[in-house]
Design a protein that fits this description.
The complex is a heterodimer of chains A (about 350) and B (about 240). Chain A has a 9-stranded mixed β-sheet with strand order 2-1-17-16-14-3-12-13-15, covered by helices on one side. In chain A, strands 5-6-7-10-9-8 form a 6-stranded antiparallel β-barrel. Chain A has a two-stranded parallel ribbon with strand order 4-11. In chain A, a hairpin with a 3-residue loop joins strand 5 and strand 6. Chain A is built from 7 helices and 17 strands. In chain A, about 20% of the residues lie in helices and about 30% in strands. Chain A is α/β, with parallel strands linked by helices and about 350 residues long. Chain A has helices at about 50-55, 145-155, 195-200, 240-250, 260-270, 310-315, 320-330, and strands at about 30-35, 40-45, 60-65, 65-70, 70-75, 80-90, 95-100, 115-120, 125-130, 135-140, 180, 205-210, 235-240, 255-260, 280-285, 300, 345. Chain A folds into 2 domains: about 5-70 and about 170-345, QueA-like; about 70-155. Chain B is of the alpha/beta class. Chain B has helices at about 15-25, 35-45, 65-75, 100-130, 140-145, 150-170, 190-195, 210-215, 220-225; strands at about 5-10, 30-35, 55, 80-85, 135, 175-180, 225-230, 235. Classes of the chains: A alpha/beta (about 350), B alpha/beta (about 240).
């Protein structure tokens, strides 16, 4: 797939500058675009709380239980001065992958070098190596636990489009958040509320969890061929009971819907060629149309920016026309992009054999 | 005390890239390679990171040299990582197995199989004391059955089995053992396997650094017995 195929015009105004609560909406009152492939229904406009209406009884919804960390820390470099250190991924005690930038609105890469010492949230740190192919990200050694520093002085990672006052970390936690570790909110889960979950359960829809700790969003495609894009790895864990629930649903012909691109990534990373099994580790799997998705039948997600690698995943799950029409519809109907924006349910319908 | 690593084939290519990555993290290093000049140059560069670097030139197939390496490791006081990376392609250009000179095949087994096992034997108490990890560098040639790669591939298949067996034997002592296929890399060894060919499309060894960052931080029990591909899109732990 070519990078250019993932480009489209998204008017600048169509982005959520803050949580829907600031716009007078409940979390589950954001809009829901439902793109249905096989039945000819096309694209329907609804509210997120109407979600249960669009899922057949017996559907298994898989959610990400990763909780979001206040992963943005103040930093200081001896020659560059004050910086922002967005902690993307914890590799081990004192080893992290970190994105350094001058400010929320000014991405790197910065003119730093291997061996440079710097101060992150008051702790001495050292630059170990740039991430191959992604020079904005550095491996950093800190002889201390950055989690504690986050609790003390961290803020949610944010970008230039957010309005002040900036949302507190609580605004970034989903109903399913159990396991802290994401640098950025697994945002597909954000609109879920207890009443939506109750209605789903009442409608005979199962919910199973897994964990994928999302790193900083630097997934804009740069390679001309989507397949050549370099991604950094993210921690994931698919527990046995979730693997079994997915396997049972597939065996019985019940739909499996991923709530979020992170869920697709984790499930596909746990796919052994025949089924999803329990698995854990790090994954940098890029889901694209050249690599068919086997574990899920549909995707509940936000709206993704032009050239985002997640768009390639959408094309791997649904026919191109359905995605393209859906996005045209979302632009026309002024849906809101980004982590606090509106939702999109892609239900491509039964796949043709093979 | 800082963590330490013994890296064979540490002057160039993959071994040199991993050595730099570990030195930057404050590991004490013990590196070896046959060519003294390259090894000393590597050691000088690695010392710039500020940590201790011991460089001993020699052949890992030579028992006396292995004894010196073990002595040096004991002097460092601990050993967290044994990185068995030194390896020979055997005869180049790569001859078909049906015509492979047998003395050269035996020599390849001495370097690629017996030497890594012998080093494990030599430093076992140190590895046990620090809950160490043995990394045996393998190759897709161990599985592929590629024409011409039989001699080298045989040694790597044997090393894979040695890794798994050692993992099963040593797991109870807190030592991890993994085999890692680093994938095709732009190194002198890879060039030697493809004489005269342009290998500039292969990535530099640094492409594998995220994998090493991940692997070396894992609890040993989570990874022991596994065979990894460093350039794969996922690295799994034992569940």
């Amino acid at each position: 797939m070519k990078r250019a195929e993932l480009d489209f015009a998204r008017p600048r105004a169509l982005q959520a500058a803050g949580p829907p609560e600031r716009r007078g909406l409940e979390r589950d009152e954001v809009r829901l675009l439902v793109s249905t492939g096989s039945t000819g229904r096309g694209h329907e406009h609804a509210r997120f709380r109407d979600l249960p209406r669009f899922l057949a009884p017996g559907t298994l919804l898989v959610v990400n239980d990763s909780a979001t960390l206040p992963a943005s820390l103040p930093a200081r470099h001896p020659s560059l001065g004050p910086l922002v250190a967005n902690v993307s991924t914890r590799y081990g005690d004192g080893l992290y992958l970190v994105e350094l930038r001058r400010s929320a609105a000014e991405p790197g890469p910065l003119p730093v070098e291997i061996g440079d010492g710097l101060d992150i949230a008051g702790l001495p740190a050292r630059l170990i190596a740039p991430h191959p192919g992604l020079p904005r990200l550095w491996f950093v050694r800190v002889e201390s636990d950055l989690r504690r520093a986050m609790e003390r002085t961290g803020a949610p990672i944010r970008y230039g489009y957010l309005e002040t006052p900036y949302p507190p970390i609580e605004a970034y936690q989903t109903l399913f958040a159990r396991t802290p570790g994401s640098a950025e909110m697994p945002s597909a889960g954000r609109p879920f509320t207890p009443r939506v979950v109750d209605a789903l359960r009442a409608g005979g829809i199962g919910i199973a969890g897994l964990t994928l700790h999302a790193g900083v969003s630097s997934h804009e495609l740069e390679a001309d061929d989507v397949e050549d894009q370099i991604l950094y790895a993210e921690p994931f864990a698919v527990p046995e009971r979730t693997a079994e629930a997915v396997t049972a649903a597939r065996r019985e012909g019940r739909p499996v819907i991923a709530a979020g691109t992170t869920v697709v990534r984790a499930l596909e990373s746990a796919w052994d060629g025949e089924r999803v099994r329990a698995a854990a580790g790090f994954t940098r799997l890029l889901v694209h149309p050249g690599r068919p998705v086997r574990s899920v039948d549909g995707l509940l997600t936000g709206l993704h920016d032009p050239l985002a690698s997640h768009l390639a995943m959408l094309y791997a799950i649904a026919p191109r026309e359905l995605v393209r029409e859906g996005y045209a519809e979302a632009v026309r109907e002024k849906y809101l992009w980004h982590e606090f924006g509106d939702s999109h349910l892609l239900l491509p319908g039964p796949k043709s054999a093979g | 005390m800082n963590r330490t690593a013994l890296i064979t084939g540490g002057s160039q290519g993959l071994g040199r890239a991993v050595a730099g990555f570990l030195a930057a993290q404050g590991y004490g290093l013990l590196i070896t390679a046959r060519g003294e000049e390259d090894l000393d140059a590597a050691a000088r560069e690695l010392r710039r990171h500020g940590g201790p670097v011991t460089a001993l030139a020699g052949d890992v197939a030579d028992p006396a040299h292995r004894g010196r390496l073990a002595d040096a490791a004991r002097e460092l006081g601990r050993l967290d990582v044994l990185f068995n990376n030194a390896s020979t392609l055997g005869v180049t250009p790569l001859p078909p197995l049906a015509g492979y000179p047998l003395d050269a095949l035996e020599q390849a087994f001495r370097v690629n199989v017996a030497a890594p096992i012998a080093l494990v034997q030599e430093v076992l108490p140190l590895l046990e004391a620090s809950g160490g990890l043995v990394v045996n560098v393998s190759s897709d040639a161990a599985l592929g059955g590629y024409p011409g790669w039989g001699g080298y591939g045989l040694t790597k298949a044997a090393l894979d089995l040695a890794s798994l067996t050692l993992a099963n034997e040593l797991g109870g002592r807190g030592i991890g053992v993994v085999a890692v296929d680093p994938g095709d890399l732009r190194t002198r060894m890879h060039q030697d396997a493809f004489p005269g060919e342009d290998i500039s499309d292969r990535p530099l060894p640094e492409v594998t650094l995220p994998f090493w960052a991940w692997l070396l931080e894992q609890p040993r029990a989570a990874v022991t017995g596994r065979r990894y591909r460093a350039q794969a899109d996922r690295w799994e732990v034992n569940v």
